[in-house]
């Protein structure tokens, strides 16, 4: 127990002193996760809204597939991206494997279904509520999308925050496609696994504390947005 107390104290010192190694890992983690969530949001928000508004053959299959992909195992996502980006894969010429770019692709694959599926649910509910008013204004379905997305913005912020939480806590997929290379693709989750296996508890604990703090901030932000939306709707 005293050894663990010492490791915890050293971990706090690393955080307070802004240890370069720890700081570099945290910064890279945020860069990868924020980029992935931004791309997933740009793709997922309009996709989810389109699925909510249009009816076409195969729509039900697509909705079920999106819902199923919300629980996509990270290692499967990582393996899929690895096969696509490996030298023998169709995108091997891009040279993205074992780079932060590959990690972004893997996280987008994990986050996109979450954002698209939850966006569809929220926009579909709003469309049912305001359908007659929107039609009376002469809006086409394509023009309804930005209107409904804007009206659902508070709820959708929670959706995006949920996606960021999934991305920032991911370990399996990013380890497969990133390789956990020191100073290149080592993010908080993969570094925690490595440093714990090496017995470097102070750094692993320091990263764990930062990751827990980040998750707490995301959940607090999601709760605040949800409460604001509820007060706004009365």
From TrEMBL:
<dbReference type="InterPro" id="IPR000515">
    <property type="entry name" value="MetI-like"/>
</dbReference>
<keyword id="KW-0812">Transmembrane</keyword>
<dbReference type="InterPro" id="IPR049783">
    <property type="entry name" value="ABC_perm_TupB-like"/>
</dbReference>
<keyword id="KW-0472">Membrane</keyword>
<dbReference type="GO" id="GO:0055085">
    <property type="term" value="P:transmembrane transport"/>
</dbReference>
<feature type="transmembrane region" description="Helical">
    <location>
        <begin position="97"/>
        <end position="118"/>
    </location>
</feature>
<feature type="domain" description="ABC transmembrane type-1">
    <location>
        <begin position="26"/>
        <end position="222"/>
    </location>
</feature>
<feature type="transmembrane region" description="Helical">
    <location>
        <begin position="34"/>
        <end position="54"/>
    </location>
</feature>
<protein>
    <submittedName>
        <fullName>ABC transporter permease subunit</fullName>
    </submittedName>
</protein>
<keyword id="KW-1133">Transmembrane helix</keyword>
<dbReference type="GO" id="GO:0005886">
    <property type="term" value="C:plasma membrane"/>
</dbReference>
<feature type="transmembrane region" description="Helical">
    <location>
        <begin position="61"/>
        <end position="85"/>
    </location>
</feature>
<dbReference type="InterPro" id="IPR035906">
    <property type="entry name" value="MetI-like_sf"/>
</dbReference>
<feature type="transmembrane region" description="Helical">
    <location>
        <begin position="201"/>
        <end position="225"/>
    </location>
</feature>
